[in-house]
Specification:
117 residues; mainly alpha; AhpD-like; globular
């Protein structure tokens, strides 16, 4: 696999969503507002919320979601140890398929961590 698989995936997803942004701006603005509100620091900090989002991405087997939330986790200085512990919970909740997608989350995290250096 490419060393930039998840960087390429997130860039391609963003590019392919451009028609949604231009033709359905209210929908995309609404989704953006929902995202910002859901991930804003409150009782839980932003990093914790990104760990939750990444766990759900693994359990629901969404590679695009894994890429975007792994990138955010790196930006928020999530550690490999936090990632692995969260993945244990995601696998517990999602079973064998989530175990396979846990490897995708590790790959995405490592890829964005290298790129962030």
């Amino acid at each position: 696999m490419s060393d930039t698989r998840f960087q390429d995936l997130t860039a391609n997803t963003s590019r392919h969503l451009a028609p949604m942004r231009s033709h359905l701006p209210e929908v995309m603005q609404g989704f953006g507002a929902l995202s910002r509100a859901a991930l804003a620091a409150g009782v839980l900090d932003e990093k914790t919320k990104e760990l939750i989002a990444l766990a759900i991405a693994v359990a629901t087997r969404c590679d695009d979601c894994i890429g975007f939330h792994a990138k955010a986790l790196v930006r928020l200085h999530g550690t490999p140890e936090e990632l692995r512990e969260m993945l244990g919970v995601a696998v517990y909740m999602g079973g064998g398929p989530s175990l396979m997608y846990a490897s995708h989350a590790i790959q995405a995290y490592e890829e964005f961590a290298v790129a962030a250096k």
